[in-house]
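Before going further, learn to read the protein records used in this course. The integers have meaning only within a learned vocabulary of local backbone shapes. The record below shows the convention in full.
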Amino acid sequence: MVNQLKISDARSESSRNIIQDEEKTDLGCCGWLLFILSAFFTLVTLPLSLFLCVKIVKEYERAVIFRLGRIVDKKPKGPGLFIVLPCTDTFVKVDMRTVSFDIPPQEILTKDSVTVSVDGVVYFRVNCPISSVANVSNANYSTRLLAQTTLRNVLGTKNLAELLSDRQGISQSMQESLDEATDPWGIKVERVEIKDVKLPQQLQRAMAAEAEATREARAKVIAAEGEMNASRALKEASLVIAESPSALQLRYLQTLNSIAAEKNSTIIFPLPMDMMQHFVKK
């Protein structure tokens, strides 16, 4: 039922648009009279009138023609040659190339009450030349202002940690918001990027101190784990040596070899413990 209502509303809206378009294309008696007179004087003054009638737009441009204040044929002209009547027709050139602009640094209060300065860059292009001319006075300037307000609105709902770590998600959210808002203007927002996030000096020092403390705590934990593993290995080695007296003698010899390799003036020879057992018993 809801889908049928939506379809009927869409059909009624499209029918209203068609009726409005038909009404707009009707110039009226005075309009047709002026159009015929303009065409007549253009034919009479040939070939001099060709310099005023023939216009050229480039591959990346489109021309929106207004005839007595109404858009002709509801579609842009170009690229290439097109003809306008000198007295009744005027046209506006629209650049279809992708345009980029920088968002000035904005002082933004994040969700966790931290003030940061954020700037960015926006890439957009004109998708519908007629809408960009008829629905907004200056599409480029309006898109710039809307990008600044959208940046504040989106970042105002983010924490500082999200702002520093999830730039891709923030850029995607801004692009969707801008694209939806500029669609009636015939503007297609292709990409939005966050360039730089500037934090206050006190906050930078606090974050650096926090990171340093975290690294020190992690280093202490790693050192403690190493000592614990070393003590366990020494315990296992002592148990193995206690089971075999010859292993202890070999350990003495290895220690003597390592001491003799160094340049020492005094060498202490370790005495095997089994030679002292007789005196210990007495």
DSSP finds ten helices and eight strands in the chain. The first strand starts at residue 54 and ends at 57. The chain has three domains: 2-95, 99-199, 222-281.
